[in-house]
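In this supplementary section we document a worked example of the pipeline. Step one takes a protein sequence of length 220 as its only input; no multiple sequence alignment statistics are reported here. Step two produces a three-dimensional model, which step three serialises into structure tokens for compact storage. The input and output of this example are shown verbatim.
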Amino acid sequence: MKRRDFSALLATAPLAGATGLALAQGGPIEGRQYKTLAQPLPTAPGKIEVVEFFWYGCPHCYALDPTLEAWRKGLPADVAFRRVHVGFHAVARLHQRMFYALEVMGKEADVHDAIFKAFHVDRVEASDDKAVIALMGKLGLDASKFTDAYNSFGVRTKSQQATKLSEAFNIDGVPALGIGGRFLTSPGMAAGGQRLNEVELGQRALAVTDFLIQRVRSKA
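The serialised model returned by step three reads:
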């Protein structure tokens, strides 16, 4: 979902006959299926970091999540994965604070799937502070403890850092995947101009991500 376009961009795209993991002959093409950052970003030594930039309200992030979760469970020991919630607009910034409040509380993994379901299956509206706090209560969290975290300086700092990282990667739409502080791909980019369904798009993006992990590993 683009920063400036919050429509369901791919919802009406027809299915293609291409296989999900098929890539361009010879591998992904730079400038088409992935981008190289002009200035590499610092990363933790000894690990290849994969960052998913996402927004809980994005239908394409919701569609990618099951494929991404299955993929991350098989990551090798030298690859570290984390999520970064973007703050493209006012509602996304509320959800960004919600994400980092949950992270501070150690509860994000517990309610991750339930939040996606609330937004995209149950059509819950959480477009102000009160609604966000009410949703957390419905998901079984202590509303008072969540509110304290949500309004904390630490969560505001984490949100600011997330926004700075998004800007450093030049993120203009989600979901997107940053690899090793050097590369960026996404389901839309990885499709290489083909019209694919959501599952195929996710498979393509993760196949390109695997390719880029190997690039980082081999220092290519």
